[in-house]
Amino acid sequence: MTIVPEKLDPTFVPPGCKPIITVRNLRNSFGDQVVHEDVNVTVCRGEILGVVGGSGTGKSVLLRSIIGLQTPDQGEIHVLGESMVGRTEDEAKNIRRRWGILFQNGALFSTLTVAENVEVPIREYFPFIKPPLLDEIASYKISMGGLPADAGPKYPSELSGGMVKRAGLARALALDPELLFLDEPTAGLDPIAAAAFDELIKSLQKRLDLTVFLITHDLDTLHAICDRVAVLADGKVIAVGTIPELLALDHPWIQEYFNGPRGRTAAGAYEEGAVA
Amino acid sequence: MAEVTEHDDDQRHGSVYRVAGALTITRAATTQREIDGLADPLTIDLSDIDRMDTVGAWIVYRTVRDRGAKVIGASRDEVSLLKQVGEFDVPTRVVPDVPHNIASVFAELGKWIAETGTTLVGLMGFFGATLIGFGNVIRRPRRFRVNAVVQRFDVVGVRALGIIALMSFLIGVVIAQQGSVQLAQFGAEVYTINLIGRITVRELGTLMTAIMVAGRSGSAFAAQIGTMKITEEIDAMRTIGVSPVEALVLPRIISAVVMMPLLSFWAMLLALIGGGVFVWTSLGIPPLTYIQRLHDVIPPTDLWVGLIKAPVFGFIIALAGCFQGMLVSGNSEEVGSRTTTAVVQSIFLVIVLDAVFAVFFSSIGWV
With an 8 Å Cβ cutoff, is A176 touching chain B? Predict the structure, then answer.
């Protein structure tokens, strides 16, 4: 049994932290298969929290529970000060307005152009915003997502994988969210595009004062942009902390993950980059 | 909320737009309308706002950009946000440009003709690929996918029995009922049996079954293969060395060709039973007499006419379904449109062929 110091315990709330997401005693199961046994995690306002875990440890299920796409067996979830469990559609709408979600494969509406995709949330919540203002806002968000100006009138099937993610990010940013959920944002991108995407997220986070909940497998992303990292294993969050803090733990999975060949390379590269 | 101060007394000084509170997306529409209503030269006073988001900043930015408005009272954060949104100012385009003029009508027409031509050529190519697939399977019978074919038999044939039975039975009843009403005017109600017997066996049994199979299985073929196309399963098959024509198309075509005559026969039978039930209950003709009469009035060639058409229809339906499925590329919406096209095409072709068959059989004397 790994001994986790109090500071890294997932229920520990760092001093000065204003919790924006609080998950307590979450349990999720599909039939006989228990995915989450006792998951706790706190996300503070203004931080980028990375969530890591092996395949099948329920990272995406955790995300789906937090954003209300999956009803948990038990547990409490508070997002932006409101409980997410057992609320009506109308109540949930007020919270949905305040967050943005980038799904793993973009989840762009395939029959709409990129610009129209970005306009969907705006039209839904603010029907009085009309073109040309609406179109200008969409173009501006697309440009903020790092896409060239000519991407607006393109359909998702005409975009490359990296552009789909950027378009998804532009749609997630449409309503100026306080909270951004990213599900494996750099998966499937080449290292250059992935690094550029990390950079984009970091700069947007600073600029727009975002809180980011980020699921990733990408060690470079973890090193480059995450303030804290939550490790999901054995049906719960084992520990939450900075990477050096986590490395001090003797949990086998954490050691293997961060100290494996890929983990060391990523850490080395990041340190070199930081020095230079 | 927003306070607007307008100096109407002196047009040269223009107007001042003073915003208080939050300048965010929530108030974007109102803010824009209020700004639009003010006269130039415009001054925007931001000294009383306590929150501004990117949309609010954008509205201020575009007013400055388009109308040369002056911004006063902005704090350092607000100035930097205004600068930031300015960095992302790009030409606005939402939908692809579509020209609307006479030339575009001709262009559309030309495109449509070209596409139809390509589709026809493609269909012939697909027909050829199917024949080659058949040839390969015949030369190497071990490549024949028995399990896949049997599974398709079940889906296309066995599972359709219920719905086809119900449909045919009701059609039999309706023909008998409508026919008897008309024939009663000549006192020739007994000829209702001729009507039921000949029309269901020769025409309707096969035709209605073909329409049902096109709707049930032709659409399913297009949707299944189309979805596999989008998820790159077809590409995966090719790279592994499995021929999609042999693995996907042949089992479906064979099952449709084999099942169509069987289902058609089933449909004829049920339609005759439906008609029989009607003439028994309404016209008082007992079942034995009914069967005897059917035997006398239906020439054996009628059954052949019905059954010879069936496998051809089955082939056309399966071919159109698989072909449209294979044409899917791009997004999920295309699966839907290709499926629709597959059903429309196959039903249309079935009816055209039915007419051709009718002429052919009459000319060889099977009337």
Answer: yes
